[in-house]
Design a protein that fits this description.
Distance between the termini: 27 Å
Low-confidence stretches: none
Order of helices and strands: EHEEHEHEEEEEHH
Strand order of the largest sheet: 1-2-7-4
Largest sheet: 4 strands, mixed
Number of helices: 5
Radius of gyration: 17 Å
């Protein structure tokens, strides 16, 4: 059985806390070479033509290009976009501006991309953000002490 040392990171990149987002990016660079599943609200799009409706050809390149650079260093794929290269499906809708965008995404390192069985964007639920679904059976290991704990076992 293949064994991975994996790290899961969840992100909400609020533009008012941009400096914290940059700090997270620096922290993530310490995980180069590990299996990484990075998910959340990135609050930016990587392709203004496919990931925004109505499409935008000019958008805030600085914020988006930093995300792309961190992805490149970590060897991460925007897995939904890889499996749906031309599909226009969005994860966020704002009534104020009546726009749709794909701000939320799953980034996964290339080393474990072949383990992903399914990825999809589901409907909106309780907020302006859609639910994301990723099926990726990564092997898990329990600490031996947990197996000896009767409460844990029950």
């Amino acid at each position: 059985m293949l064994r991975y040392s994996a790290k899961l990171k969840v992100l909400h990149a609020d533009r008012t806390h941009f400096c914290l987002y940059l700090e997270l990016g620096k922290e993530l660079l310490s995980y180069v070479g590990l299996a990484l599943l990075w998910t959340g609200d990135f609050n930016c799009v990587l392709d203004g033509r496919l990931d925004w409706y109505p499409p935008r050809l000019h958008f805030e390149v600085t914020y988006d290009s930093r995300t792309a650079r961190v992805m490149e260093h970590l060897q991460c794929l925007d897995f939904w976009r890889v499996t749906h290269p031309a599909l226009e499906k969005y994860t966020y809708h704002t009534l104020t501006h009546d726009t749709h965008s794909r701000l939320d995404r799953f980034l996964i390192t290339k080393s474990v991309a072949n383990t992903v069985q399914f990825v999809d964007i589901l409907g909106w639920f309780l907020s302006g953000h859609a639910l994301l679904l990723l099926r990726c059976p990564l092997p898990t290991a329990l600490h031996p002490k947990a197996l000896g704990d009767a409460i844990f076992i029950s």
